[in-house]
Amino acid sequence: MYKRILLKLSGEALMGEKQFGIDNSRLDAYAAEIKDLHDTNVEIAIVIGGGNIFRGVQAADGGMDRTQGDYMGMLATMINSMALQASLEKLGLYTRLVSAIEMKEIAEPYIKRRAVRHLEKGRIVIFGAGTGNPYFTTDSAAALRAIEMDADVILKGTRVDGIYSADPEKDPNAVKFENLTFDEAYNKGLNVMDMTAFTLCKENDVPIIVFDMNTSGNLKKVVEGEKIGTLVTV
Questions:
Q1: Do the beta carbons of residue 226 and residue 42 sit within 8 Å?
Q2: Are 209 and 157 in contact, with CB atoms under 8 Å apart?
Q3: What whole-number distance in Å separates Cα of residue 198 and Cα of residue 228?
Q4: Which residues pair with 157 in a beta bridge?
Q5: Distance CA 104, CA 95 (A)
């Protein structure tokens, strides 16, 4: 169904069963899922969070300057991005790591036309360091890059199989939604993405699919059009 997608992964997802850092088995499993999708000639861009290493908001809650904390969080996303890049290249895939903050020894600077060209050539593009600005989450970075890359959809890979009326891990009576409009998700107070990212997607008509990334084969099935997860559209 989709020719070009942006995959958003949370940093916490990379922890697997660990309490902190990166679970290599989970990382390799994600890389294998991405390879299976790439083999179908889908163009893939990726944004990863850094919450498994450092979160700027938590630093601010502890008294640290929020701007400083957010820049530290951007560096955490680069660590995760480099780890995923290594796992993908171990499988023989061609990748490009692109950073919103200049780190020329390890990543390319973000230049839209160059990033688009990488996608057109079949390279997997990983966008690190968020938007390069404090006070913006990696959800916002995912929305922004999806719009700039003219992606067909944002696929938000989580550990739950869609959007629910409440946290399904805490409320057994939580109801799963198959389809939602942006207005319905907002009016119901559902936590899909932060409001900046959500508004960007709504105003630019970029659909979001929230799905369980930890179930083998789900990523490819979603792109092929199977009814997996929750679809949010205008």
A1: no
A2: no
A3: 20
A4: 9, 211
A5: 16
Using alpha carbons, list the distances in angstroms from residue 228 to 49, 97, 160, 222, 225: 23, 29, 11, 6, 8
Helix (H, G, I), strand (E, B) or coil at 149: coil
Q: Residue 188: count other Cβ atoms within 10 Å of its Cβ.
A: 12
Q: Which 8-state DSSP code applies to residue 158?
A: E
Phi–psi pair at 125, nearest 5 degrees: -105, 120
CA proximity to 47, closest of 166, 157, 128, 131: 128
Q: Which residue has the tokens 């008509």?
A: 205
- The pTM assigned to this predicted structure is 0.94
Mean pLDDT of 8-33: 93
End-to-end CA distance of the chain: 18
How many of the other CB atoms lie within 10 Å of CB of 189? 7
Q: Is it true that domain 4-233 has CATH number 3.40.50.2300?
A: no
| Lowest pLDDT segment from 89-103, 144-158, 167-181, 219-233 | 167-181
pLDDT reading at 61 higher than 90: no
Encoded amino acid at 219, one letter? L
Tokens (6 digits) for 147: 């719009």
